[in-house]
Amino acid sequence: MAVAPNPFQLPNITKFKIALCQLSVTSDKNQNLDRASRMIRFSVKQGSKLVVLPEMWNCPYSSDCFAKYAEDFDNRDASPTLSMLSEAACCHGITIIGGSLPEWDHGRLYNTCCIFGPDGKLKARHRKIHLFDIDIPGEISFKESDTFTAGDQPTIVDTEVGRIGIGICHDIRFPELAALYRKRGVDIICYPGAFNMSTGELLWELVQRARAIDNQLFVATCSPSRNSTGSYTTWGHSTLVGPSGEIIVTSGHEETTVIAEIDYSNIQLQRKSLPLDDQKREDIYKFIDVHELNP
Ligand SMILES: O=C(O)CCC(=O)C(=O)O
Question: How many structural domains compose the chain?
Answer without folding.
Answer: 1
